[in-house]
Specification:
With 263 residues, the chain is mainly α. It has 14 helices and 2 strands; from the N terminus they run ααααααααβαβααααα.
Amino acid sequence: MNTTQSLARIGLTVEQARTYIMANLDKPVTLYYAAKQYKIDSQMLADIVQDRFPGVNATQVEAFFSSYGLRGKDLNAATLNPAPVVKSWQGDSKFKSLFSFNDNTGALSTESMRDTVVAKVGWDKYIQTFSPKNIPGAADGVLSVADLGFSQLGDIAATWQNMESLLYGTISKLGHSLSRNEAQEIYDFTQNFDLGLQIKNPWVMAQFEKLMLDALLDPATEQDPPVLSDEEIADAISNALIAQVSLVGIDTSQNLFNNLNVF
């Protein structure tokens, strides 16, 4: 946002702002606090008075106020108008490498699971559930690689259809990743460390997290096939989605993918 646009935000033109500054040049305290109140930083002030003081820069503006005992550096653009911290949507997710669109067929196809869920919750709630509006970066209609936090899909359109396919595809991949041997290892661990899990012993929880992550990030193989069938995975996804939408309701400040970050 340039100086003209910033001033327009508070209903002023550059000429009006310049007139005000020149009329109050002998009242630096008044100018200083007006600038802070309306977030007119030192570079903007320099831009405004260029016609009267050619070549003046932000550093000189700050020095002007400092000479009167004011904290001129507080008018620096980085201090007064810091750039917002933009955090990628799934950049911190331990499962970001698994995010994918759904290309499954049969029970795990998008159409099949959609029909199951819509039959229980209705079309309107279903569409609302997959709205991308609460995903950072979606406001411009595109979720870029930087917005997403993973690169395997490139930039994607911020549509409910893509969010739908992404949820089904990603959770299906997670379901397919858990092999029979890994499921047995997890079961054995929970039996051997039942008390530690109940009281959330730090060492036990750390080992359990590692065990679960290794199991879900490591694909099942032909020699060690998935413990769950396609039908079981589809039922789990559909039932969880039905429960969240119809029983818990839709939290409009969240999105369904938040629950993937379980660790």
